[in-house]
Fold this sequence. Notes:
Layout: H1 2-36, H2 39-47, H3 49-70, H4 74-107, H5 118-144, H6 147-172, H7 177-212
Helix pairs in contact: 1-2, 1-3, 1-4, 1-5, 2-4, 3-4, 4-7, 5-6, 5-7, 6-7
Amino acid sequence: MREHFKQQLAEIKAEVVDILGEVETLVRQATTALIEGDSELAARLVANDDEFDRRTLAVEDRVLETIATQFPVARDLRLLHSLAFIAMYEERMADNAANVAKTALRVTDKEGTVRAPQTLVDLVQVQGEMVAGVLAATRQALETNDLGLAMKLPEMDAPIDELYKQFFRALGHLTDEGDIEWASRMVMSSRYLERISDNSVDIGERIVFLITGERDAYDDIELSSQGQR
């Protein structure tokens, strides 16, 4: 019975880790659709968003079922609770990535040309790559219980916040009304990407809690004094 329970835990965690990988892929593809004006790719990504909802809800259902039937305590209960928490954020991140794909549909004309200032297109490309990198690190931290990597996520997120601010500075230099209209839509995409990165930091904080049992903020935890419990 105990071995079956361990297998259940491993399967749920593996699913949550896999969804994180899929969100990373979604972010990369949505960014590509936006900067290249790929309406077909964008439409496929938007249509696939329901699959993320299904998978994350299934994780929550499995967590509840496991708690109800196995009565986990201590670290096992912390793991299950954390996985449900992470799945909730995965669903939000997938929604925001799908919103980036929706923006691609709005700023791309029938000829496949992105109707937005190139400066902003370049910024969103860099931001998308950075957000995908944060997601990859988050996935690795969860999969391997890497406390040090989880603690680095806020540092990785900081430049993404700065890029979001750059969007507004660039917007302030535009004078053509047409450019401003298209640019405002690109700014929303930057906001969606920034929120995905913020959610990764939230997941990282939960990973720290999962490993250490501590609910303190990142900067209150001393790496040198923490061990796995």
